């Protein structure tokens, strides 16, 4: 008798879950535990740094090792009399939201490993020592840390495949479809969290360059474009270097600071986008010029 297709996929889910729990064990029980022990002895890096690198990996490990893997194993042993996994995955799906924190922290964690490996030789040596062990399979810590980031998309693919291969009359159809929908929502949730975090980080970096002026700092703003521009002065037929930041609701007309202490630019003028007009000019002396006129003022500017 050939195994039904859906059972093969369920077994693949179980096998990859076992391998995944081993990877989580390596991250939490070996890398994290040993680096933390050395940090507590004050030998390598501050404890806070180790915590920031590994984020909530311990919770993720405990969840998979103590709950999800045993549930799947039990289910596959009983497959002949109860061929279903949809209900188990439905129980699991809400917990997968905790991946949001780990995934959001991933880039920062990798950056911290690089920075502290350069700063602290004992830290670098301890990581290298663990990486040499057989359990690491010649792969770097960063490589192992990528695994949880890729795990939810992997569930989604396997479950999609499983649902497609289920016979129409399968007792697992409803549960499996519902489980797939839940996993899809979790994946979307973690992607949206990353995108929003990146947007806020970039926005904050721009506000710092502008000297964190109270009337400008607003988390709901969106930066659309920024760049250097020449201000045309018709009075003395000359141009001077300025800089523009265009947000969804305002245009900031700035002057680059000569001495860059703190801020990079000084905001000279804010023009609201509401009611703003842009008009191209045909000036032979100053090509690529245009007028920006708003409620606050009109500027004659020249692009490169």
TrEMBL record:
Q: Which SUPFAM superfamilies match?
A: DBL homology domain (DH-domain), PH domain-like
Instruction: Please provide the record's keywords in A-Z order.
Output: Cytoplasm, Cytoskeleton, Metal-binding, Phosphoprotein, Repeat, Zinc, Zinc-finger
Record domain DH: where: 5-193
Q: What is this protein called?
A: FYVE, RhoGEF and PH domain-containing protein 2
Compartment(s) of residence: Cytoplasm, Cytoskeleton
Q: Which GO terms describe its molecular function?
A: guanyl-nucleotide exchange factor activity; zinc ion binding
GO BP field: cytoskeleton organization; filopodium assembly
Lineage top rank: taxon: Eukaryota
Where the protein is mainly located, per its record? Answer: cytoplasm
Q: Which gene encodes it?
A: Fgd2
Determine if Repeat is one of this entry's keywords.
yes
| Entries under InterPro entries matching the protein | DBL_dom_sf, DH_dom, FYVE_RhoGEF_PH, PH-like_dom_sf, PH_domain, SOS1_NGEF_PH
One term under GO cellular component: cytoplasm
Record the organism.
Spheniscus mendiculus
PH domain segment(s): 222-304
């Amino acid at each position: 008798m050939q195994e039904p297709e859906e059972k093969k996929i369920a077994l693949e889910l179980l096998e990859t879950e076992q391998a995944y729990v081993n990877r989580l064990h390596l991250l939490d029980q070996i890398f994290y535990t040993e680096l933390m022990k050395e940090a507590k002895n004050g030998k390598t890096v501050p404890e806070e740094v180790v915590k920031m690198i590994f984020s909530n990996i311990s919770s993720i490990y405990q969840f998979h090792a103590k709950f999800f893997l045993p549930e799947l194993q039990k289910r596959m042993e009983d497959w002949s009399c109860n061929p279903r996994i949809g209900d188990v995955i439905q129980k699991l799906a809400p917990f997968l939201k905790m991946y949001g924190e780990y995934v959001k922290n991933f880039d920062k964690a990798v950056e911290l490993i690089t920075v502290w490996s350069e700063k602290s030789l004992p830290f670098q040596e301890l990581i290298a020592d663990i990486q040499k062990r057989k359990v690491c399979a010649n792969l770097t810590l960063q490589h192992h840390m990528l695994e949880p980031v890729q795990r939810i998309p992997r569930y989604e693919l396997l479950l999609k495949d499983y649902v497609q291969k289920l016979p129409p009359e399968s007792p697992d159809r409803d549960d499996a479809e519902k489980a797939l929908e839940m996993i899809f929502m979790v994946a979307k949730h973690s992607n949206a969290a990353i995108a929003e975090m990146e947007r806020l980080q970039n926005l904050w970096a721009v506000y710092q360059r502008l000297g964190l002026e109270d009337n400008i700092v607003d988390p709901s703003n969106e930066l659309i474009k920024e760049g250097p521009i020449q201000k045309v002065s018709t009075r003395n037929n000359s141009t001077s270097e300025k800089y523009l930041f265009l947000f969804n609701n305002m245009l900031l007309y700035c002057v680059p600071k000569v001495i860059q202490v703190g801020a990079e630019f000084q905001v000279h003028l804010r023009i609201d986008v509401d009611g703003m007009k842009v008009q191209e000019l045909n000036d032979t002396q100053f090509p690529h010029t245009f007028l920006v006129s708003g409620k606050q003022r009109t500027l004659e500017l020249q692009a490169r």
